[in-house]
């Protein structure tokens, strides 16, 4: 088994950053009324700006384009993209059911060679699941150059026109003409962008590389019901009914394809279950707080920061805040791209020195999956 190194990391964030006061002007007001949830959500999540692949109500980039731009930045004359062999891609927001997201990116890259592709389905953990496949491909000797990318184009799901049929239906029923909090909540949480990592069996000759010591993922779907979902509705018994089992008019009348989240279930489980898994990994890998120089937690909201810190304390992983590194306030919650965006910023910050050890945490609330990545700077 060979060693595996992240030798380059890149990002692409589309257009100009959007501040909190500009969001509703870009996304629009549902039912021509300001959101009741917006101020509360923004006050708690700590996000100051985000990026949208959207201008004047029109798309500027597809999800595959965002990913392909980030990927191309990993290559140059010294290492041309013609050397790429394996591409893994994760996203929450693919633009089609078929072909796969990785295939869409491959086509968008405009390269001459065929590739081995893996599309990881899911939410924030999908890019980490793809990264594990790339890690195993390099480690086993099946490939010498692999790229893992996480990308999102949430903005197309968040614009007011997507919810207008539901609001009009509510008005006809003389009901409260506001979309439910479970849908409105996520309109103020999510951002567009892409992050990518290049994996090779040897480190850079100049500068730093990140040696992948281990990457672990798990799912608690056997214990917990669905929390974040799209293309379905959640029933009173906790089960979900998918779009293909609904009448077509219901798709728009109830904003079935909107991204929704059960915030009660999220608050009760997202931090504790992540701690349960981390405690298991501490035992498995002999991991202690002294073995972490930088902690990169992907958080959907700064609301969870104190909870994560306190829960880590209870399991003996009391990582002080000065070791935390995240960029949620500056780039927003970019789902599957967020772990790579944190790594990219730290990798190019000039702060890392050889021997530093990084622990990356990526939770996914869809049905509670978690990924932890441990790296050493070499």
From TrEMBL:
Alphabetized SUPFAM superfamilies for the sequence: Thiolase-like
GO biological process: secondary metabolite biosynthetic process
Entry-linked InterPro entries: ACP_syn_III_C (IPR013747), Thiolase-like (IPR016039), Thiolase_N (IPR020616)
Membrane-spanning residues: none
Thiolase N-terminal domain span: 58-162
UniProt KW Acyltransferase keyword: yes
Domain (Beta-ketoacyl-[acyl-carrier-protein] synthase III C-terminal) ranges: 282-362
Protein name per Swiss-Prot or TrEMBL: Beta-ketoacyl-[acyl-carrier-protein] synthase III C-terminal domain-containing protein
GO molecular function: acyltransferase activity, transferring groups other than amino-acyl groups
NCBIfam families named among the record's database cross-references: PRK06816.1
Presence of the UniProt keyword Protein transport in the record: no
Keywords: Acyltransferase, Transferase
Organism: Taibaiella soli
């Amino acid at each position: 088994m060979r060693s595996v190194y992240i030798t380059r990391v890149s990002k692409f964030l589309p257009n100009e950053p959007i501040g909190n006061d500009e969001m509703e002007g870009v996304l629009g007001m549902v039912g021509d009324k300001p959101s009741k949830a917006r101020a509360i959500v923004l006050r708690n999540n700590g996000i100051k700006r985000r990026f949208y692949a959207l201008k004047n109500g029109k798309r500027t980039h597809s999800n595959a384009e965002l990913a392909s731009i980030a990927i191309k930045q990993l290559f140059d004359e010294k290492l041309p993209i013609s050397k790429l062999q394996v591409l893994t891609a994760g996203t929450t927001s693919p633009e089609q059911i078929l072909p796969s997201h990785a295939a869409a990116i491959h086509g968008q890259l405009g390269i001459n060679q065929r590739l081995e592709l893996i599309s990881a389905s899911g939410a924030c953990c999908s890019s980490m699941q793809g990264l594990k496949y790339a890690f195993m491909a390099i480690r086993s000797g099946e490939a010498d150059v692999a790229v893992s990318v996480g990308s999102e184009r949430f903005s197309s799901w968040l614009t007011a026109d997507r919810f207008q049929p539901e609001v009009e239906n509510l008005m006809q029923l003389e009901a409260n003409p506001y979309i439910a909090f479970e849908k409105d909540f996520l309109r103020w949480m999510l951002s567009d962008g892409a992050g990518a990592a290049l994996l090779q069996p040897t480190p850079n000759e100049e500068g730093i590389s990140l040696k992948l010591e281990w990457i672990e993922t798990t799912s608690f779907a056997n214990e917990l019901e669905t929390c974040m979902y799209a293309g379905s509705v959640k029933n009173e018994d906790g089960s979900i009914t998918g779009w293909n089992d609904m009448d077509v008019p219901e798709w728009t009348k109830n904003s079935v394809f909107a991204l929704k989240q059960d915030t009660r279930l999220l608050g009760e489980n997202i931090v504790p279950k992540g701690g349960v898994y981390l405690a298991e990994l501490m035992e498995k890998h002999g991991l202690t707080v002294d073995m972490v120089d930088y902690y990169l937690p992907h958080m959907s909201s700064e609301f969870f920061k104190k909870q994560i810190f306190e829960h880590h304390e209870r399991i003996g992983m009391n990582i002080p805040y000065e070791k935390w590194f995240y960029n949620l306030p500056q780039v927003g919650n970019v789902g599957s791209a967020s772990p790579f965006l944190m790594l990219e910023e730290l990798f190019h910050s000039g702060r890392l020195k050889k021997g530093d050890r990084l622990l990356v945490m990526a939770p996914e609330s869809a049905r509670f999956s978690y990924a932890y990545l441990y790296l050493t700077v070499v």
